[in-house]
Specification:
about 325 residues; five-stranded mixed sheet; two-stranded antiparallel ribbon; Trna Endonuclease, Chain: A, domain 1
Length: about 325
């Protein structure tokens, strides 16, 4: 799935797996836990795998997509089969399409294989959720872990400003220390549909927004770089175009910063506080892909040292 949305959506699924299964209409559910999604037999990794407990446990395999992949149904089948074999549990696969660009005629929820002229000898079924078709009211009433999806859901009955207002009321009713993280995730996911300036206009003034890292980096990086770049390139390309490009650069830098924030937060939950050397090593990572690779390895490593030793973070 293209960056920079990987870290945000994976963070939400990992932190609130039951909410995402509810979002997909799965149920009833027992105890749910995110488990290791690494499929080392083919050096591949599914986005997220959730174990649903109870008398008859099963796995939910979640893939999040922002762009169309022709071979995605076949890849989903491969992951499903490997997870079934690795854990000896029935596995249900779910593809969450985050924007229309990820959709296609092949995303039917059924993958078939047949010999020429013959009937299908294999039929694999998977679930497909199209985020932009989910009724906004149901998303607003769902779990907190999927609440940041509200602005990119079906807004036929509600304006974006009203959605943000309703989200603010919900977060205020259910106060959390990490409320800023929800607004950060919301701002990043809004990039799937809205222009950077529109995002800031919609989120400006939201209670708790100023505490979010998203607000800080879009304000400091996006606006500052956008104005500077607009001035520098204004003569050649036009001030408006320069500002837009600058804001886009700011968003990219902010995505790296947000990914590092998520890495530190999730890592400290697993390994304990990060020391100065660990923080410095993470700060030296210059690409969002590298930070997200570290996030993906959190379940494999046992300590900060183990995590960083298996990466190029300290190079």
């Amino acid at each position: 799935m293209p960056k920079p949305y990987d870290a945000t959506t994976k963070f939400l699924v990992e932190g609130f797996p039951a909410d995402w299964l509810e979002f997909a209409g799965f149920g009833p559910l027992g105890k749910v836990d995110v488990i290791d999604a690494n499929l080392s037999t083919i050096t591949s990794e599914a986005d997220k795998v959730i174990r649903v407990g109870g008398p008859e446990p099963w796995l939910a395999h979640v893939e999040l997509q922002t762009s169309h992949e022709v071979d995605l149904p076949r890849r989903i089948l491969r992951y499903n089969t490997l997870l079934d074999g690795r854990h000896d549990l029935p596995t249900r696969s779910l593809v969450v399409l985050l924007r229309p660009e990820a959709d296609g005629g092949d995303m039917t929820g059924v993958y078939r294989r047949s010999l020429p002229g013959g009937p299908p000898f294999l039929e694999f079924r998977y679930d497909v959720i199209r985020a932009w078709l989910q009724p906004v009211e149901s998303v607003l009433a769902g779990g907190l872990g999927t609440l940041p999806m509200a602005p990119v859901s079906d807004l036929a009955t509600m304006s974006p400003a009203e959605v943000i207002r309703r989200m603010g009321e919900r977060i205020d009713r259910e106060p959390r220390q990490d409320a800023g993280m929800f607004w950060s995730a919301t701002g990043i996911l809004m990039g799937l549909r809205y222009k950077p300036q529109d995002i800031m206009d919609l989120l400006r003034g939201v209670r708790g927004m100023k505490e979010s890292s998203f607000y800080q980096w879009i304000l400091e990086e996006g606006r500052a770089e956008g104005v500077a770049k607009g001035i520098a390139e204004g003569v050649a390309q036009g001030v408006a175009q320069g500002v837009a490009q600058g804001v886009a650069q700011g968003v990219t830098q902010g995505a790296i910063r947000e990914a590092k924030r998520i890495l530190l937060r999730q890592g400290e939950r697993r390994y304990g506080p990060a020391g100065p050397e660990t923080v410095a090593a993470i700060e030296r990572v210059g690409a969002v892909e590298a930070v997200e690779a570290l996030i993906d390895r959190l379940t494999e490593a046992t300590t900060w040292e183990d995590l960083l030793a298996s990466s190029s973070a300290g190079d």
